[in-house]
Design a protein that fits this description.
Elements (H helix, E strand, L loop, with lengths): L5 H15 L4 E6 L4 E8 L2 E5 H4 L5 E5 L2 E4 L2 E6 L4 E5 L19 E7 L5 E12 L2 E2 L5 E2 L2 E5 L10 E4 L4 E7 L5 E5 H14 L14
Antiparallel strand pairs: 1-2, 1-4, 2-3, 3-7, 4-5, 6-7, 8-9, 8-13, 9-12, 10-11, 12-15, 13-14, 14-15
């Protein structure tokens, strides 16, 4: 009778989850051929980190099955660090369940290399906090931190829980800290960026008279 090897089972389970998520992480390259990772949010739209994309307006999306030149910027929101690119033709089907981050649970941070091939990092959810506001004033439904190291090119990719459900999008916070933009924030902000190009904000005015 063969003994059960728990490490082998864990390895196989991780391999299965990464394989099932193939295509969820794509690469976005700019005119200088530098790339970052992105999350395929819907067949014709990807979401990535606004802070690493800069102000360039010429990009191409690179996937494992080909390239999509000249996607257009649908919208960007520095407050939540989200930038949405839209394509004229669908890239792939997306049907990923939504997950919840729990402290101590395993998390898979996916990215993409310059050729669009999937990369993977495994770690723990180190903390989950309540609603918070970024330095740029963006509202995020939870403060989720991961015990994972990411390269700059892997920022902006999807983060999955152990069951393969989408927890959110990775982003680099303070030095040495990897944060997750929660899926609840994505579900609130991305539709606004797709329809309006921005997230409306409130303004405080001052009225003066002689």
């Amino acid at each position: 009778m063969n003994a059960i090897n728990p490490l082998s089972h864990l390895s196989q389970a991780i391999d299965t989850q990464v394989g099932a998520a193939q295509g969820l992480a794509v690469a976005v390259r700019n005119a200088s051929h530098r790339h970052v990772s992105a999350l395929l949010w819907q067949p014709d739209a990807v979401v990535t980190s606004e802070q690493v994309m800069g102000n360039r307006d010429e990009y191409e999306i690179v996937t494992a099955w080909g390239r999509t030149p000249a996607p257009r910027i649908a919208g960007r929101d520095p407050g939540t660090n989200l930038l949405v690119l839209r394509t004229d033709t669908p890239l792939a089907a997306t049907n990923v369940p939504r997950g919840t981050a729990r402290v101590g649970s395993l998390a898979l941070a996916l990215g993409a290399d310059a050729a669009g091939a999937t990369t993977a990092r495994l770690g723990l959810v180190s903390s989950v906090g309540p609603l918070w506001y970024s330095r740029a004033g963006g509202r995020l439904e939870q403060r989720i931190a991961l015990d994972i190291r990411l390269r700059r090119t892997e920022e902006g990719g999807p983060v999955l829980d152990a069951s393969g459900a989408l927890v959110g999008m990775s982003t680099l916070g303070p030095p040495g800290v990897v944060l997750v933009i929660p899926v609840a924030t994505l579900e609130r902000v991305v539709p606004q960026l797709l329809s309006d190009g921005q997230v409306p904000g409130g303004w405080l005015g001052l009225g003066l008279q002689p």
